[in-house]
Amino acid sequence: MANVAIYDMKGKEVGKMDLSDAVFGVEINEHLVHMAVVQQLANNRQGTQKAKTRSEVSGGGRKPWRQKGTGHARQGSTRSPQWTGGGVVFAPVPRDYSFKLNKKEKRLALKSALTSRVQENKLIVLDELKFDEIKTKKFQEVLDNLKVNKALVVLNDNDQNVMLSARNIPNVRTALTNTINVYDVMKYNTVIVTKDAVATIEEVYA
């Protein structure tokens, strides 16, 4: 069972807490982590790319010159791929890139990602994260106190003051416990989680 320090918003250690091995201490499955990241990126693709093949471009119905005797290579259409204005060979068409992962695979991938952050000492637990007003400067001060510059901040409640304060800071993303995903956990150098959020994650994913 991993034991991590709890910090306040000033960056001072105010306690310790044990993390559940069922969520933060599993055996890391790199293959599932990779598949979860690929799935999320694939599902985000629009898949609306389109180019015309030689059968779809306009013109080119007439043979440009007779088959023999001109000195030119034989041509059957001015819309063949080698002609300017011709069609594209194996042109892309709209398609759906998305694919599915089983629920158990998704859960294990997220647990593996969280476990890797704990093992690399890149998971920081805060006792609380609250602001009286929307102030980006205050949020940046918290990051400076924790010596963090690229972070995923996981909250238990939809606190608009915190979320809007973090919105304009580059390399910082906020998420709720029910919206965290493998891609974000792996993308950001550090995962900052409130103490309440840790309890919720352990309750949901254990």
Query: Helix share of residues?
Result: 25-40%
Mean pLDDT: 92
Structural class by secondary-structure content: alpha/beta
Low-pLDDT residue intervals, each spanning 5 or more residues: none
- List how many beta strands DSSP finds: 6
H/E element string?
A: EEHHHEHEHEHEH
Main beta sheet strand tally, sense and closure: 6 strands, mixed
Strand proportion, as a percent range, falls in: 5-15%
Cα separation of the termini: 13 Å
What strand line-up does the widest sheet have? 2-1-3-6-4-5
Cα-based radius of gyration, to the nearest Å: 27 Å
Blueprint of the fold:
Blueprint: E1 3-7, E2 13-18, H1 21-24, H2 30-43, H3 103-119, E3 123-126, H4 136-146, E4 151-155, H5 160-166, E5 172-176, H6 182-187, E6 190-194, H7 195-205
Parallel strand pairs: 1-3, 3-6, 4-5, 4-6
Antiparallel strand pairs: 1-2
